[in-house]
Amino acid sequence: MILDDNDTVNILGVHIHDVTAQDTLAHIVRFIAAGRPRQLVTVNPEFVMEARRDETFRRVLNGADLALPDGVGILWAARMLGRPLRERVAGSDMVPQIAAQAAEQGHRLYLLGAAPGVAAAAARRLQRATPGLTVAGTWAGSPAETEAPDIIRRIHEARPHVLLVAYGAPQQDLWIARHLRELEVPVVMGVGGAFDFIAGVTRRAPRWMQDGGLEWLHRLGYQPWRWRRMLALPQFALLVLASRMRAR
Ligand code: UDP
After folding, report:
1. pTM of the model
2. Which residue's CA is minimally distant from atom 7 of ligand 1?
């Protein structure tokens, strides 16, 4: 961890950094200057619930160099537990900002994951929005270990400063943790469905729904097969409330 424990909030066993989007961008610049590989994770309530089931995932999240508070559910939980976080820092919102900063600083970006063609389409959109952005490469690949040597070879050849990985949680974050050292990329971040949003494959909830904590409802409308996973949300809320009662 780059920050000490006073800067993190523990939500049901998962540590989250109290950082803003601006802080996150500043940390990214620092990480790139320092050069050693760092892992960024974007923690939402589904991550926390998965971490309670999966010890390895919990260790990966707590070992990340930067754990961003992704989602109003996390902000709500932090408030309930008496340790409010300053700002929601959603991975999908950060990607265009990371790209803009990379263009400014002359850093190269690599987009790994999503369905074939989606990362390339997202890269084109990012480049259109951010003239001067260098995308060192895009590749769908898969988080299967048999593909890892090929992916790592591609990334070594491209030598990006920032690698964004869209294999969905927890696979993307586990994959990053397994390969962080050998990737030799200073900033590696799991971004879930971000390439799908940027490429226009899926649509993000309108801002008012996001701010009202209703992003899950929008998602359920588009991706009804996620209903089972979404049961994690009320369970998360109940556990947070129980933990608050115990602390009183
Ligand atoms: N994905 C992939 N390979 C896989 C599993 C998933 O490329 O083996 C991609 C998928 O195409 C999508 C992203 O990973 O772009 C997962 O998006 P989702 O919105 O499900 O992210 P989550 O909310 O699970 O983090």
Report:
1. 0.95
2. 114
pLDDT at 4 over 80: no
Ligand 1 center from residue 170 Cα (angstroms): 10
Strands 8-11 and 14-17: antiparallel
User: Does ligand 1 have an atom closer than 6 angstroms to the CB of 195?
Assistant: yes
Q: Ligand 1 centre from 243 Cα, in Å?
A: 31
Average pLDDT of the residues in 62-88: 96
Ligand 1 and 139: CB distance under 6 A: no
